[in-house]
Amino acid sequence: MKRILLVLALIVLVAVSVIGCGNSETASKLTGAVKIDGSSTVFPITEAVAEEFNRENPKVQVSVGVSGTGGGFKKFAAGETDISNASRLIKDSEKDAALKNNVEYIELAVAYDGISIVVNKENTWVDSLTVDELKKLWEPGSKVNKWSDLRSSWPDTEIKLYGPGTDSGTFDYFTEEINGKAKASRSDYTPSEDDNVLVKGIAADKGALGYFGYSYYLENKDILKIVPIDAGSGAVSPDATTINNGSYKPLSRPLYIYVSKAAIARPEVKEFVNFYLTNGPEILQQIGFIKLPDNLYSEGLAKIK
Predict the structure, then answer these.
(1) Is the domain of 82 the same as that of 41?
(2) Which of 210, 278, 217 is nearest to 243 (CA)?
(3) Within 10 A of 291 (CB to CB), how many other CB atoms are there?
(4) Domain, as residue range, for 143
(5) Is residue 109 classed as helix, strand or coil in its secondary structure?
(6) Is the same domain home to 129 and 203?
(7) How many CA atoms does the CB half-sphere of 1 hold within 13 Å?
(8) What residues contact 297, with CB distance under 8 A and at least 6 apart?
(9) What Å distances lie between residue 275 and 70, 84, 166, 266, CA to CA?
(10) Is residue 216 domain-shared with residue 286, that is, in the same domain?
């Protein structure tokens, strides 16, 4: 019996080796580099896709930077990157900059996200916030400095605010939806393009509040507390269902990648984008993002072909 088991084990080992060699030979045909930059919110999706892509294509160098949606578009419009991660649609000024440099592009939606309002885990008084209260807190010239300034029943604890930097698409989207104008915000808060910096700041301060993409909350839910938002029909927390159906409003939004047409003419870039749209939906769900309807990925694949 032991001899039979040993033979079977050797057969499996040889089979795996053959399959591995086959994959290696296939992968070795694709070389080159793919340069990506932009949104910190889209970064975890693209990074995860890149890691899986590199398992099959180890000779393709995929670099993924994080300079915010606005910073990413600056590099993309200058022809410095092949793909730009974006947590909002491209602006007219960014379109003009790309046009000036003869950078044509394809816009591809890749996921849904819900901007999440979070507080310190030890915050016991906040069970929800209204959209009006968020505006009062974050609008330019806001006089809200303590929690009691929002609701008299809340403590006289100082509010320490954390949020994305001004190059962030999350900042643009949040300020437009909450304050009525993109980039209109109070300036006396701690900004960062790195959402992990915001997480650490909020987790270390009992009076803190901040906002960033839903996946960063999920990744750190043991040390943060989510705040349901009331847009007039009752308080709603972000989750896979409420983000997908839009009932978590007004902070549900799609996420994008923008691909240079010149770059996608290169085999390694085209294969990477094809891999992204084909395998990305499953990958992104594993890291806390919400996938789009299947037909939107099919439409994206048709665009790149």
Answers:
(1) yes
(2) 217
(3) 18
(4) 116-250
(5) strand
(6) yes
(7) 0
(8) 277, 278, 280, 281
(9) 25, 16, 31, 14
(10) no
Q: Which two tokens stand for residue 177?
A: 């939806």
Question: Would you state the torsion angle of the CA atoms of residues 197, 72, 248, 118, taken in this order, to the nearest 10 degrees?
Answer: 10
- CATH number of the domain where residue 285 is located: 3.40.190.10
d(CA 226, CA 236) in angstroms, rounded, equals 11
Classify residue 154: in a domain, yes or no: yes
Number of folded domains in the chain? 2
Q: Per 3-state DSSP, what percentage of the chain is helix, strand, and coil (rounded to 5)?
A: 45, 20, 35
pLDDT digits (tens, 9 = 90+) for 49-86: 999 999 999 999 999 999 999 999 999 999 999 999 99
What residues are paired with 131 via a beta bridge? none
272 and 284 fall within a common domain: yes
85-98 pLDDT, tens digit each: 999 999 999 999 99
Contacts of 33 (CB under 8 A, 6+ apart): 60, 61, 62, 63, 268
Fill in the DSSP letter of residue 230: E
Q: Which residue has the tokens 């290696």?
A: 24
Distance CA 40, CA 143 (A): 29
Q: Supply 101's token pair.
A: 């440099």
Q: Are both 201 and 282 inside the same structural domain?
A: no
In a domain, residue 4? The reply is no
CB-CB contact of 120 with 207 (8 Å): yes
Tokens of 143: 């006089």
pLDDT band at 305 (very low <50, low <70, confident <90, very high): confident
